[in-house]
């Protein structure tokens, strides 16, 4: 019997890991408590990989030498506790996959902006380098290593994926911001979540880089108390930075790395909003470190189209703009969305609350929001927080109905914004499903 890998969860990361492990001579067993999607099942059958669905066979799993668990499975799960009690190492897909590649890795994490920054970074690099995009986005990292093994990868990485690393080390790590999110998975201790995000740098050396937001007090305070080995490259909208990126008084982005400077006008960025200037700074700094030509960086920033379900303009109907920001699964993401609204806004909000504190949204709701449509199974908290702030607040559990109500309320010059500030699992499969249903409902008006 060879080395035996147990895989919990047969989603994108689980299937990719199974294929990579099998190709490298591991004995593999895939177990999913739910049902496995047909396309994934076919892949497992075709590659003769043993699997089960609808249950976890404990004795089989507890016989493994190593366990790869899907980021969606919490440590609190009984089976995970048993595995750890037995001393079987538990790792994430990015940890497993990184052991089979010598590629230069760019790891991007943060509470918000990961997908946009990872996609933008990939867009900047792919003009001149062979580079894959993986992690929390697209095809799994493991499967890409098996199929193509690019010399470079941009990885969007969540805290859950970082929780289960051992030796994973990006050459360039990007830490965009840290705001309270997923606290239900961290015993409601913000410190645990911060520590988790900083694991992206824990194996880095002085030859590696950590690019981070110097305006984020959570990050700067933590760094002072817990120094890292990495070479630090901060970015800021507020202060002048000698080695890193900042915005000067003329709205020019200035990036300096090892005395090599690149400048560009923030006004020319395809993506709007202050938070996107930061995302652009982070992505451009990565490109600058990897020796992408300055002209290429500038051009790529000007033509990048953004990410689906992130402040995505859907349609304008009767001079009302419908905006899909379904990817806003926490309060901070919605903060950016409301901040970027110009006129009166009909706001569709709600879903599975992860311990949200809505206070930081109050100023925008008072200023800009004319009506609120709560779209969730349990909207009590939203009603309590915002009930007195707007004239109209309604509840629904159907996207089509939410959009019809918005259509009736909105007048010429208004915007209808889907920016839920919550997870989607109470009524939808995931935030993509929620965003697609919104777009379909708008198109069917």
UniProtKB/TrEMBL annotation:
Enzyme class: ligase
Cleavable signal peptide: none
Location of the Mur ligase C-terminal domain: 309-422
Gene3D superfamilies linked to this entry: Mur ligase, C-terminal domain, Mur-like, catalytic domain, NAD(P)-binding Rossmann-like Domain
Subcellular location: Cytoplasm
Catalysed transformations (reactions): UDP-N-acetyl-alpha-D-muramoyl-L-alanine + D-glutamate + ATP = UDP-N-acetyl-alpha-D-muramoyl-L-alanyl-D-glutamate + ADP + phosphate + H(+)
Job of this protein: Cell wall formation. Catalyzes the addition of glutamate to the nucleotide precursor UDP-N-acetylmuramoyl-L-alanine (UMA).
Name this polypeptide is given: UDP-N-acetylmuramoylalanine--D-glutamate ligase
Originating species: Subsaximicrobium wynnwilliamsii
